[in-house]
Design goal:
The chain has 143 residues and is of the alpha+beta class. Helix content is 38%, strand content 24%. It has 3 helices and 8 strands; from the N terminus they run H-E-E-E-H-E-E-E-E-E-H. The strands form 2 sheets. The protein has a 6-stranded antiparallel sheet with strand order 3-2-5-6-7-8, covered by helices on one side. A two-stranded antiparallel ribbon has the order 1-4. Strand 5 and strand 6 form a beta hairpin. The radius of gyration is 23 Å and the shape is elongated.
Length: 143
Amino acid sequence: MKSSTEILMNNKRIILFYTATFFLLVAIVLSFMSCGKVPGNLSKATLVFNYADKRINTELSDEESEQLYNIVKDKSTFSDDMSSCGFSDKTAFIIGGRTFCPACDGCNTIKEWESGKLINISKTDRNTIERIFKNHGGFFPCV
């Protein structure tokens, strides 16, 4: 028959095992759900707008490029497979080889096309994006 000390030690080992397993699982889940950051590297932006009868592909001014860059630089990204906003790489701006797609329906969200990650932006940032697109013949909503 086992002594009470042996039983207590076995119970402690079991609790320790389950606790360690729990924290390991939490770490794994968080690594898949973790937020990233949009790395910064300023370069000339290109605006793409291919919707309805519009076919626009133009390099933006330094000022417009910097405005768009400042909207996305160092912003946290997240995954959301349930996002109801519509995105298209045919309505986008490209900075440093990365394609950023503002929501076509006017949501305050941008999708980084290559990674599929989303970025929340302010209404002011959204207005800036829409103004730049409008200056070059684009428009929203475009769904």
